[in-house]
Amino acid sequence: MKNTADITVLGAGSYGTALAISLASNGHRTLLWGHDPEHIENLKRDHANEAFLPGITFPELLIPEVDLATALAASNNVLVVVPSHVFGQVLEQAKPLLREDSRIVWATKGLEPETGRLLQEVAGDVLGDKYPLAVLSGPTFAKELAAGMPTAISVAGTDDVFTEDLVELLHSPKRLRVYANDDFIGLQLGGAVKNVIAISAGMSDGIGFGANARTALITRGLVELSRLGEAMGAQTSTFMGMAGLGDLVLTCTDNQSRNRRFGLALGRGQGVEEAQEEIGQVVEGYRNTKEVYALAKRLGVEMPITEQVYKVLYQGGTPHEAAKSLLAREKKSETEDSE
Ligand SMILES: NC(=O)C1=CN([C@@H]2O[C@H](COP(=O)(O)OP(=O)(O)OC[C@H]3O[C@@H](n4cnc5c(N)ncnc54)[C@H](OP(=O)(O)O)[C@@H]3O)[C@@H](O)[C@H]2O)C=CC1
Ligand SMILES: O=C(CO)COP(=O)(O)O
């Protein structure tokens, strides 16, 4: 009995812990696995994750676990919440320890480094097509979720029963609305591209531009996301929902976003490395700008904001030059799609 759980969460950083708190608050026994034994000892001792979510006490049903085999044997529902650059590696580690009936969902937002593949492709590559897969995506700052503040999120995947079960596990009439969605690709892409646009919004504010510029970036960022989504087989209507417009507005406008704060620092003249170090947590958009830009080029999709963020992060461009280039673009119709 001791080792059974309703769900196991892999990744004991800010978002993995917040989701584990939310699930346990819903009355589900939740194992939270992390790879650092000292960190997990601290979680057990403090009944809180003081390193990532200070001051938030764990519900009783949240159990920190350091042994991956124990964590994966405890439940067939496995929620992966590690940064995208270690996603494949963590699945490789998990693979020999999974159960026959395991089902895998992730809340990681990003693409695979170097290849730019969607995480569904990475999961398929590592695990084959035996396990149901799903993704959670939407505007959800870890701290607010963990504090039980009202939040909404979307879930989509390969298996309707799994998607519905995830809605049941996560949904709370008091705190968390969970929308089922059938656009697996769109939800993943929205979560990756919004990080890049949040960096651009941060840069704009860091330079000292105002609400007009920020809003223009969000709006045209949404157009870039929709164009890329269309080229990849997503449903463009998805991007008017939680994983598109929702997450863009959240991360482009609020300083809880690490991607936005990273952009702010760059806009104020800090270097890329210094800005990342100062944030001290994962800034998915840093790596993912490279992947999103490469993907857009490969598919022939025009993404001028993404291109400018890429130039600042990887080609020595400055935020001022990026702004100048965007403003100096050819005049065009707002609804024109190809240019
Ligand atoms: N925070 C948020 O509000 C939200 C985050 N997300 C997404 O969730 C994902 C995780 O982000 P978040 O929790 O915020 O990041 P954090 O930086 O807060 O935490 C990342 C965690 O992953 C751990 N980790 C790193 N490498 C490995 C590994 N190889 N095996 C196991 N664990 C590892 C880190 O451990 P260590 O510290 O030891 O390196 C750390 O505990 C990202 O893709 C992010 O975009 C999505 C929505 C909201
Ligand atoms: O994805 C997030 C909120 O939905 C978190 O954003 P950051 O990774 O920019 O902090």
TrEMBL record:
The active site is at 194 (proton acceptor). Catalyzes the reduction of the glycolytic intermediate dihydroxyacetone phosphate (DHAP) to sn-glycerol 3-phosphate (G3P), the key precursor for phospholipid synthesis. Pfam families: NAD_Gly3P_dh_C, NAD_Gly3P_dh_N. Keywords: Cytoplasm, Lipid biosynthesis, Lipid metabolism, NAD, NADP, Nucleotide-binding, Oxidoreductase, Phospholipid biosynthesis, Phospholipid metabolism. One of its GO terms (molecular function) is glycerol-3-phosphate dehydrogenase [NAD(P)+] activity. NADPH binds at residues 14-15, 35, 109, 142, 258, 282, 284. PROSITE patterns: NAD_G3PDH (PS00957). It catalyses: sn-glycerol 3-phosphate + NADP(+) = dihydroxyacetone phosphate + NADPH + H(+); sn-glycerol 3-phosphate + NAD(+) = dihydroxyacetone phosphate + NADH + H(+). Residues 183-323 form the Glycerol-3-phosphate dehydrogenase NAD-dependent C-terminal domain. Sn-glycerol 3-phosphate binds at residues 109, 138, 140, 194, 247, 257-259. Signal peptide: none annotated. Residues 7-160 form the Glycerol-3-phosphate dehydrogenase NAD-dependent N-terminal domain. Its EC number is 1.1.1.94. Its main location: cytoplasm. InterPro entries: 6-PGluconate_DH-like_C_sf, 6PGD_dom2, G3P_DH_NAD-dep, G3P_DH_NAD-dep_C, G3P_DH_NAD-dep_N, NAD(P)-bd_dom_sf. It comes from Shewanella eurypsychrophilus. This is Glycerol-3-phosphate dehydrogenase [NAD(P)+]. It is found in: Cytoplasm. Belongs to the NAD-dependent glycerol-3-phosphate dehydrogenase family. Pathway: Membrane lipid metabolism; glycerophospholipid metabolism.
